[in-house]
Write a structure and sequence with these properties.
By secondary structure, this protein is an all-alpha fold. It has seven helices and no strands.
Length: 167
């Protein structure tokens, strides 16, 4: 399938806008695949933070800003994913309390089996948001859009091309 330069430029502009909205803004909705991408990126930042030396200077210069950035990106992603489901972003408060309790519990508990269990329990909000189906219609948080970073404009344009004329 040949695409014109105008179509490629339109796709690039849309992709740039989507990436900016994906990382920076809390408004709108995101698809499950985009949410998964965000979770992987946050996990990557977490792995980078594990490599940072434990001296306070390194933590002050690198680790704390990285943690704040990954926390904000995760907050944006979870808020948008909740909106895609049709729920308010305020539903994150119980989820973060749940996750925070799990983190505190893993620091207090000595038994490794219980620690692993608590880590598994902490993943429940992430897994729910990953697999819960979206509202496939416009809702009060934004219009339903078939475009996703993983789907790409090719899938989006293919579906548009298959629609009968006049729609």
């Amino acid at each position: 399938m040949n695409t014109s330069p105008e179509q490629k430029l339109a796709y690039q502009k849309r992709l740039n806008r989507e990436l900016k909205e994906l990382f920076v803004l809390t408004r709108g909705r995101i698809h499950r695949a985009d949410y998964f991408l965000m979770c992987i990126m946050i996990k990557g930042v977490d792995e980078i933070m594990a490599l940072i030396p434990e001296e306070p200077v390194w933590w002050l210069i690198i680790a704390i800003p990285l943690w704040i950035l990954s926390f904000y990106i995760g907050l944006c992603a979870m808020t948008k994913r909740l909106r895609d489901i049709g729920l308010s972003g305020w539903m994150l408060i119980p989820a973060y309390l749940f996750i925070g309790a799990g983190f505190i519990g893993t620091e207090i508990v000595e038994d490794m089996t219980l620690k692993v269990s608590l880590l598994g329990v902490m993943l429940i909000p992430f897994i729910i948001l990953l697999f819960w189906p979206p509202q496939r219609k416009d809702n009060k948080y934004g219009p339903y859009d078939e475009f996703s970073i993983f789907n790409g404009a090719g899938a989006y344009n293919k579906k548009k091309a298959n629609k009968p004329q006049g729609e």
